[in-house]
Amino acid sequence: MTFVHVIPIAAIGVLFGDRIVPIVYGGGMAPAGPIARALFGVTPLLFLTAGVAVGMLAIGKPWAGIHLSVLTAAINLGLDYLLIPRFGIAGAIAAVLMTALVSAFLFLRFYRTDLGAGLVPWRYLGRCILASAPLLVLLPVRSSLDSMAALAAFAPAAGLLVLIGMRVSGVVGQQERTLLRASGFTMARRLADLLGSRS
Questions:
Q1: Are 23 and 36 in contact (CB under 8 A)?
Q2: Do residues 111 and 58 make contact, with C-beta atoms less than 8 angstroms apart?
Q3: By C-alpha distance, which of 73, 58, 192 is closest to 114?
Q4: For position 121, what pLDDT does the model report?
Q5: What is the tens place of the pLDDT at every residue in 112-155?
Q6: How far apart are CA 176 and CA 181, in angstroms?
Q7: How many CB atoms neighbour CB 130 within 10 A?
Q8: CA angle 99-104-109, nearest 5°?
Q9: Is 0.70 topped by the overall pTM?
Q10: Which of 120, 138, 177, 181 is 20 to 30 A away from residue 76, measured at CA?
């Protein structure tokens, strides 16, 4: 269920990160806004490769990924060496994005034999993305997101839209809702009720 919250948070960051950063950290940090958007965009890939690594640990091969991890680190350092001196911050961002893409490809390509064809639940990830789609409704007010008051109004609206998306997409199934209700936390039970029927 990691991607249930990772993808919506990443979507908010990609769509609105450049507006949120100067509100939270001050106008002097505005140049970091586009960087934040790019990094939010790559975040789901990092969780994807982390999930693969956990899968290898679960089947008793904790060191199986060391070679790919070393290779990924070498690729990252190489890209930094090539891109940062020439392009500065833009080069650093490009290096991070390219390394994340290459890392995800390598992990999925070489661990498929051990973890099977169902290594990535693509349909589930698609539903997580679908659950984030209602956030697009807020795009017309992007330019108005320029103060703490606006952010205070934006946050619950975004949360409500994501909850609606989760319920419509069915991204949280009956088993997950049962676990939420059994957790003993009132808020968890209420969330389970919001995301589906009580049956």
A1: no
A2: no
A3: 58
A4: 74
A5: 766 665 566 778 888 889 999 999 999 999 999 999 999 999 99
A6: 9
A7: 16
A8: 125
A9: yes
A10: 120
> Which residues have a Cβ under 8 Å from the Cβ of 128 and sit 6 or more positions away?
3, 4, 6, 7, 8, 169, 171
Domain ranges of the chain: 2-195
The chain-wide mean pLDDT, for the chain, equals 84
Question: For the chain, what is the radius of gyration of the CA atoms?
Answer: 19
Cα–Cα–Cα angle for 41, 147, 153, nearest 5°? Answer: 80
Amino acid (one-letter) located at 113? T
In the 8-state DSSP scheme, what is residue 147? Answer: S
What distance, in Å, lies between the first and last C-alpha atoms of the chain?
20
Mean pLDDT of all residues in 51-60: 70
Q: How many residues does the chain have?
A: 199
pLDDT of residue 1: 59
Quick: pLDDT tens for 154-174.
999 999 999 899 888 888 877
Tokens 């973890």 found at: 115
For 41, 57, 63, 103, 139, the CA distances from 36, given in Å and listed in that order, are 9, 31, 32, 20, 17
